[in-house]
Amino acid sequence: MHSEQILKQYLNELKLQVSDSLNIDQEKSFKKQSGQSELILISRNVGKINKRNTEQQRTIVVTSENLYNIDKKTIKRKIQIQKIFGVTVSRASFEFILHVPSETDYRYKSQENRDIILFYLSISLKLNNRDGLKIYLVDQEDLQQFCLHQKTTDLQKQIALHPKTKLLFLYPHDFQLQYINMLNQPTKSLNPNHKITVLFMNDKMKFRIKLEDFQKNAIINSGSLSKIFLINQKNDRQKIWALKTIKSSDIDIDLMEFFLKNYEIEPFIEQLELCIRQTDLIHFFFKFIKGGDLFAHLQNVGSFTENQAKYIIAQVGMALQSVHEKGITYGDLKPENILIDEQGYIYLTDFGYGKLRVYQEYKKQQNINFSVEYASPEYLKFGDLTRMSDWYSMGILLYELIMGISPFYNINTEVTIKLICQGDLHFPKGIPISIECKDLISRLLQQDSSIRLGFSNDFKEIQAHQWFQEIDWSELKQKKKELPYIPNIHESVLIQEQFIKLEQLCDDEKGWY
C-alpha cells in the first residue's frame, strides 16, 4: 500500500487529521529538501532553549520519516524518526527534551504545542515500526541538566544525563488518556481526593485536565442517583456543560469502561464530553442542551399534535435502536430523560451512565429505578427487563405526548401497577388521533412481549409501520429536516427559564474536594 494511503488509513483509525497548521507543505523551500515520499503530520511553533539558556523561536515539523527544526524558512536540522530515543517531559513547566543518541539533544518549550507535538511524534514512531514513544516524566521546571547540547560519540555519556526515573511507553491509540493521567498524578499528595483519573475525553486535542479548571454554578435537575449541575470553564464562562456526579458503587465500573472505550457520538443521544474518576466518585461532563427536557415542554404545551409527536417518537426510536445495537437495555424512558435542542431535535439522557444494563432477553435485572407508569408489565410481574421493555415505554410516551397524560396514570401507585398489568387501554374521546397511530400504540403496549411490535426485528419492524411512512429517515438522522415542533428559545439567552429551573448550590456542593 502507498505510504500516503497507509498514513490516511491510520489517522482515520485514530479519528485524526494531518495538523499542518503552518502550511509547511506549501513551502517550496521545504519541499525541495524533504523526501518525495515524506508526508507532513504536524507543524507548530515552539521555543528552542540553547545551552546558554536563551529561548529562540523555532518551528518543529514532524513527518512520516523525519523531525525538522526550522528557523524561519531555513532547515537547521533534520533528524530521522528512527534516531529519536525518546523525550523528557516536565510536569512543572512546558519544557521537553528530544533525546537523540550519538547526536545532540534538543530542549524546547511550548505551552500550547508541546503535548500535541508529542502525540503526533508517537504516530510517526508507530509508522516507522518503533515500540512506542519513550517518556521520562520529571517534576523539575528547568530541564537543562538532562540535555546534551554538544555532540558526542560516547553514547554512555549522553544516556548518563537522562533522568533517573522510570521510562514510560506511550502508543497513539491510548496516548491522550495515558498522557493526561501521567501529568495529573502528583508524586506526593496530602489529600487522596486530589488524585483524578480521566476515563474519557471527546476532544482528541486536549491534553490537560484539572477539576479546578471548572466551576459549578447551579443545579439543573435532581435524579434518583445524583444531581445535575450547570458548570463552566473558569477562563471562559461561555463554555458550559451539564455535570452528573455518581458514586462508583452505583455503577458497574467494568461495563462502564467497556462502554467508554467503544463510545461514539450518536445523533439522538446526549453527548459525553469528559469522564473523570475521583476516588469513589465518577464525574460525567455532557454537552449542555439549551431546551431542557421534554417533560417541561409537555407541561408548557399540554399536549403535542400527532405530527409533532411522530417526529419526536421517530428520533426516540432511532436512539433506542443505537442503544440496543450496543447490547444495552435503556430501561428508563420518560419525558424527563429526553432533552430537546433549539431546532427541536431530541437526545436521550440518563442511560447507561447510572446503571449500565447488559441487554439479554428475559434476564432479570435488579435495582432499576423506574417511573412506574412507564414500566412494562413483564418487569412489574416478573422483574424481566429487555429491549422489549423499551418499546413498551415508547408506546406509553407516544400516548402521553398526544393525550397529555399516560394511559394508566393514577395518583395511587398500586392502582397504576394494577392497570398496567391488566392492560386495558382506552383512548379518550374528543382528542383527534389517527387509526394508524392508535394501532401503533396498541401494538407497542401488548401485554405479551413476544407479540409486541419490535420483537422480531427491533426498531426496523417499528419503522415499517404505516404511521411512519412519510418520514425520510436519512434526512432526519442527518438533522436536515425542519421539524414540526421547534421550541421557543432565544439564541442570546443562555438559560431558558421556562424550560430549565435553576437551584442555588449549598456551600458543600460548590467545591470538588
TrEMBL record:
InterPro entries: AGC-kinase_C, Myosin_TH1, Prot_kinase_dom, Ser/Thr_kinase_AS. One of its GO terms (molecular function) is cytoskeletal motor activity. Residues 469-513 form the AGC-kinase C-terminal domain. Residues 214-468 form the Protein kinase domain. One of its GO terms (cellular component) is myosin complex. Pfam families: Myosin_TH1, Pkinase. Keywords: ATP-binding, Kinase, Nucleotide-binding, Serine/threonine-protein kinase, Transferase. PANTHER family: RIBOSOMAL PROTEIN S6 KINASE. This is Protein kinase domain-containing protein. It comes from Paramecium pentaurelia.
